[in-house]
Known about the structure:
The protein is mostly helical.
Amino acid sequence: MRRYLPDTFTMLLVLTVLLASILPVTGEAQGWMALATKLAIALLFFLHGARLSRDVVIAGLLHWRLHGVIVLVSFVIFPLLGLGLGFLLPTSLPPALYTGLLFVCVLPSTVQSSIAFTSMAGGNVPAAICAASASNLLGMFLTPLLVGVLLSASGGGGFSMSALEQILLQLLAPFVLGQLLEPWIGTWIRARKTLLMPVDRGSILMVVYLAFSSAVVEGLWRDLSVGDLVTVIVADIALLAAVLAITIYGSRLLGFSKEDEITIAFCGSKKSLASGVPMAGAIFAHQSIGAIVLPLMLFHQIQLMACAVIAQKYATRFKTLPAEPST
Length: 327
């Protein structure tokens, strides 16, 4: 039963939002907090680059058909579903929340949880590692481009070149530096996952605290109603359910093995909080991003609970069925 409850990191996110609601950072302290957050995010993506083995990158090229399906789902089907929500959601939903829902749709896949659920369900773990890593790399370029396209289509702003520059400088440059140094420090970093975890979690919590502090000062909780939150939760559930159905039944129609089906389902349906929160800070730099990242934070917990159930079902089914050869 514990696996269906919020994980420790989700509870920390909730506490961070509560802290920002009670004691938001303002004034000169906000400027220093913003600088510290940018440095923490740069360190986070440097470590991501240093952790990613060259062997994983090369192996990813060998299963191009599987990875192509995951990229198609993450960056084409998901955004189209997000646009479709615009015709179904009530017009009273605040624009920032709908922008947040569109933002969820253009984010890359998660890395750690996609791999963990794929392993739990008995899927193709090496392919999941490659697919999730490739999705995050592509997301640095595709996410800001797709945000511009979707916001234009929904009547919002267009593509911002400055947002892409922020992504490249703050996220991609440290990632590339880490990848260049991977032959010398990669093994050391991969062996110290627990030691370096505070950098992963801490940098995201810093961004969330900064974002919600600004949003609270500008009246976030005054402007949002319980009905708005319920609408966002229902929309998140509908998005996840639709994509899970597409990935599971679509992979069967395309003739993928059961192991690859599991990989496509988990990597294609997940959205990364670790990449999404920093990207939101860069893409929506001159906006209050508290309401924009709220749908992502809710989607994060929903996908963890849903995928825990699905992974358990897959694992149980594998005990009664013979293993199929991987494509």
